[in-house]
Amino acid sequence: MVVTNGILEALGEELGGRVHLTNAYYSALNAAANKYFKGNGVSCSMQNSNDFLLLGTNQIAVARAGDDFWTEDPCGDPEGSYWLQGCHIVHCAYNSVWMGHVVLPDWDMFLSTHQRAHFHAAARAISGGPIYVSDRLGQHDLELLKKLVLPDSTLLRCVAHAQPTRDCLFINPLHPHGPPLKLWNINRCTGVVGAFSCDGGEWCRVERRFRRARHSPERAQERQTTACYTDVDVWRTDAPSKSFIALSHLAEKLTVLSAPDNKVPIGGAVYAAEVRGKANGVVVAEVRVRGTGEMCAYASKKPKRCSIDGRECEFGYEEEDGRVSVQLEWDRDKKIRALQYLIEAEDVKESYSVP
User: Fold this and answer.
1) What is the pairing mode between strands 253-256 and 181-186?
2) End-to-end CA distance of the chain, in Å?
3) Buried b / exposed e across 196-211, counting CB within 10 Å, b at 16+?
4) Are the C-beta atoms of residues 48 and 10 closer than 8 Å to each other?
5) Cβ(340)–Cβ(303) under 8 Å?
6) Using N-to-C axis directions, what is the helix angle for 117-127 and 80-99, rounded to 10°?
């Protein structure tokens, strides 16, 4: 993890100049990362003129996309621990629009015990970049971290970098009365849309810093917005289906957006899905997943039986929204689990899986 590259400007005067010193530094950094860390490294100092020469290394193209994460306002505003977090997410989101075509944007660390830790955790989850925290030793919100990382410490990252939705490209999410910031990303076969209330801060041209916005409430307020599958920009002209199943994470609500039509949307934890024919009057929907916790799926009728790796398991079914839930336990010996839903053929319209 590289955090001292800003010092190159000060040291370059008697060592051949900044460019010469940076070239030497960059070569040594690559050699050290390759020798001691198998090529893994993160250039995590916020970007300035020096850092743009250090966008990742030869082995890994990860670089910071915004300002540092601040736990509170460095100028002393007691409410800065709230409104300043929105500024950070806005920086990273809009910078990722162009930086994501050059490097994998890194949205910086955060504290899992911070007042807005869940806000930051959701942003990191959709960012597509690395996730890391700088908690003090022994001071962790483990329940929050378990939502981001699998028991073997691997991440279920989105396959691209997060970007603002089209209707947010030319708005100011920091405005006290403006709409929330919406971000989109994709998994293997599905998309993710996140909405973030970022209001409360503004850029002061006189003081040349971010501060609490004038006429702004002390803390970010709840905002309402709409989301559609076309918010996932790659689906505007080439959607994988004409129908979608939406899962609201906070509300834990499953919504059928249109009539099913033989497509199986797949989430980040799902590696493959297949619906096999009506042999013996039974349809078998098999989903291969990785992870632990509740696996949520949609079925138009209650399945007759569910199994994990060939063993029958308990499951729940909600008549109201067609939600089928199965609890997956972690198995360190099996990275990919096979989950099967058995449904009588005459009951079946289609079945859908969601993350």
Assistant:
1) unpaired
2) 31
3) bbbbbbbeeeeeeebb
4) no
5) no
6) 10
Give how far the C-alpha of residue 59 lies from the chain's centroid of Cα atoms, to the nearest Å. Answer: 23
Three-class DSSP category at 181: strand
In a domain, 26, yes or no: no
Which residues touch 70 (CB under 8 Å, ≥6 apart)?
80, 84, 88
CATH code at position 284: 2.60.40
Same-domain check for residues 70 and 215: yes
DSSP class of residue 304 equals: S
pLDDT in tens, the chain (355 residues): 555 556 666 676 666 777 777 778 778 877 887 888 776 666 555 554 455 545 555 666 788 888 888 888 888 888 888 888 999 999 999 999 988 988 889 999 999 999 999 999 999 999 999 898 989 999 999 999 988 888 888 888 888 999 999 999 998 888 877 789 999 998 876 788 888 988 888 888 888 888 887 766 555 566 777 777 778 887 766 666 555 666 666 666 666 554 333 333 335 677 777 887 766 677 888 888 888 888 888 888 889 899 999 899 999 998 887 888 899 888 888 888 888 888 876 544 444 444 3
Q: How far apart are CA 20 and CA 12, in angstroms?
A: 8
Residue 127 falls inside a structural domain: yes
Domains in the chain, number: 2
Instruction: Let me know: does 161 contact 192? Beta carbons within 8 Å.
Output: no
Contact at 8 Å (CB) between 216 and 240? no
DSSP-based three-state secondary structure for 326: strand
Q: Check: CB of residue 124 under 8 Å from CB of residue 148.
A: yes
| Domain coverage including residue 317 | 264-353
Pairing of strands 62-64, 104-106: parallel
Are 228 and 269 in the same domain? no
For residue 31, is it within any domain?
A: no
Residue 298 lies in a domain: yes
Q: State the DSSP code for 110.
A: B
Task: State both tokens at 302.
Answer: 């209650």
**How far is 282 from 276, CA to CA, in rounded Å?**
9
